[in-house]
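Quick note —
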Amino acid sequence: MMMVRCYLAPSAIEGLGVFAGSDIRKGAVVRLFDDRFDTAYDKEELTRVPRHFREFLERYTYDHPRDPDYIVLDCDEGRFMNHAALPNVDVSNPSRCVATRDIKAGEELTCDYAAFGHGTVELHPSRHRIGQIIGTA
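Predicted structure written out below.
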């Protein structure tokens, strides 16, 4: 769960992003894994859920920090944190993610997906239609 005030907004990186709601000091804890709120799913369950939900889980989950048979879905804005080659949040320990530098209010929070995933970083097409009108009246 996010440990700092943050909000979702359109991102120049991709779709939606997580933005700092106030200044964050270097070394501050930005996010903590908390199994009271963050949901863990057995990886085998992915084969038994509807395709659209499997795609959602594949996009927004990460490997459980203590059990390789599970994935975790953040309970809050954290699931929308975008990838950056030079991130401002260190997620190499997904149980306790920290700011790599001072972050100003309004700045997008980013992480390196390779730090907590296995294999290469795969970026998926956006699931969000920011500023687009869907359908007709």
